[in-house]
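okkk here we go again. third time trying to get the pyridoxal-5'-phosphate bound version out, last two times i messed up the smiles copy paste (missing a bracket lol). double checked this time i swear
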Amino acid sequence: MKIMPNRLDRGFLRYQEEFEKKAVEVLRSGWYILGREVSSFENEFAAYTGGKYCVGLASGLDALWIAFRVLGIGTGDEVIVQGNTYIASVMGITINGATPVFVEPDEFYNIDTDKIREKVTKRTKAILVVHLYGQASDMKSIMEIAREYQLKVVEDCAQSHGACFDGQMTGTFGDIGCFSFYPSKNLGAFGDGGAIITSDADLAEKVRVFRNYGSEKRYYNRVVGTNSRLDEIQAGLLRVRLSHMGELAEERVMICARYLQKLNNPNILLPSVREGATHVWHQFVIRTDRRKELIDYLNERDIGTIIHYPIPPHLSEAYQYLKAGRGCLPITELYADTVLSIPLYNGFTEEEQEYVTEAINSFE
Ligand SMILES: *Cc1c(COP(=O)(O)O)cnc(C)c1O
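finally!!
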């Protein structure tokens, strides 16, 4: 049996007829940019998250950098963010000329809220919260700190569609929630896509204008914006996927409950979930000091794995200018050296999972 870390084809095949019908409908409509599908998706996604306004964009990275741009955060400003994140979170900050200030993660792989206050300076303008791997961060503590220091809060929900803290959905706590619909995300398109949600009408309007060359009315440009539009085909296909999010999310929870129940190997640390938080399992991330051996062992059995992420942003070549060398963030660096994401996808069969579980349990 060959097991890949992810199988996007399974996600397509399950609703193939609906996806194909929608694609043909959009193709035949003659309207391909900013039309009915995008505005319907925006309304439906806002309703799904409990957010007030949603604006569709071209990618998750765009959602992040445009969020900071419309909040007026740029050169000379600092933004607090966890050290262990996908590099896009950090680029969303630095594209605007602002400086990321890294905080170590907790045992749930999200920002350690006990370590935020010591990083706040006169220049700190915002906290970027990343709900990594699909688990909601401790939003109660984060919002308390933000209120105390009057900081903006931007949420990176690229991995957390549907995850809640104290019953409230991620993306709706801060000023702006940023989403990606990259194909492998829990709510994935068939190409690039992204969105922001916010409860602030003024911010929503600013993003709406900014994504379309800063233009509200055709050929009248209010600000120097960008081209970051979600297209009609992706929006239409996302509407199909969103209509099935309930069952898709449930399936992932069931698969991960089985992993948690059946994986049993003293060499491996399993993920855990914070009280008050829910986890939508974008990834099932284990940790082991013998990662290289485990990867090779699983490869020999045709089981693929991925490391999310092998090089933390502060150690990447791109961010050498920050001068945050190895040793700056020991927990972040330890995680980068020991985490491993094992196969997980909608349509993962019990038989496939059994094969993976047995292989991991017999690794010694
Ligand atoms: C995927 C991802 C992004 C970027 O989204 P794109 O749509 O690929 O630009 C940002 N942050 C995190 C945490 C992600 O996983």
